[in-house]
Amino acid sequence: MLYEILSILAPVFICAFIGYLWVKLQQPFDSAFATQLIVYVSTPCLIFSTFMEVEIDKEAFLNLMLAAFMTTMTFGLIAWPILKALKIDLHAFLPSQMFPNCGNMGLPLCMLAFGEEGLALGLTYFTVNVFFHFSIGMSISAGHISFKTLLRNPIFITIFITMLMVFNDIKAPAWIYNSTEILGGISIPLMLIALGVSLAQFKISSLKLSLSLSLFRLGLGFIVSVLIAELLGLEGASRGVLILQSTMPIAVFSYLFAAQNKRRPEEVAGTVVLSTLISFITLPFLLLYLLA
């Protein structure tokens, strides 16, 4: 079991460390280009090629979409009054508690822990998470919402087209599938390298606040997802993916939105770094629990 867990975690740590070391060695890395490439090209291709290849049970797909929606809303409903009572800036820190890093970290772990089915289910959770992060999350951070930005997001367009094809049993031509498979293949390593780059660039400006919010995010994610998995009767890979994705650290996008809207970005960056570092310690125990 320990060797199995090591085989899951090692690729994640190695890829992230390459990104971290790259920055520390003062090598150039265009984070803006990498982010655009991930959002506009590689991730849509990964979604399309994965769902075209993996025969996922439609009921399992819909159940996980529901579970992802329920966990995201529950995170917000619990975190909002607590942060408000503690007089912590909601615009800056509420999105960080609602939206785990289910892309950069979550997708590789889902694939390594649960195979191609896990990747498909992980992408399902990721899609729901991104939808709400780019709508509710952006509106909380900015104070308003841009539906034009939301509807133009290629991830949403891709998932809509892909689901139409999946639910109508339409197969993509080989040349389209092969092209998207190659382009989608760069997503996971690039996400992890970009995560390592972010960890090298961000700094912890307020240790007490960052530590408190990091522990709260990880603990909230685990408890809520376990309860919702029980409530919906999820089993096997569906249960594992829900809990794994929900217990990821704070998403890098929370920092990007905070920086864009000048919502205490240095402190939000600190929560991203610290929650990720803590998750490196908690992940072996989480995987041991899920794979036992």
From TrEMBL:
InterPro entries tied to this protein: Mem_transp_PIN-like (IPR004776)
Topology of the protein relative to the lipid bilayer: Multi-pass membrane protein
Subcellular location, record wording: Membrane
Transmembrane region(s): 6-25, 37-54, 60-80, 120-143, 155-176, 182-202, 214-234, 240-258, 270-291
GO cellular component: membrane
Main location group: membrane
Pfam family for this entry, one: Mem_trans
Biological process annotations from GO: transmembrane transport
Keywords: Cell membrane, Membrane, Transmembrane, Transmembrane helix, Transport
Protein name: Transporter
Species of origin: SAR86 cluster bacterium
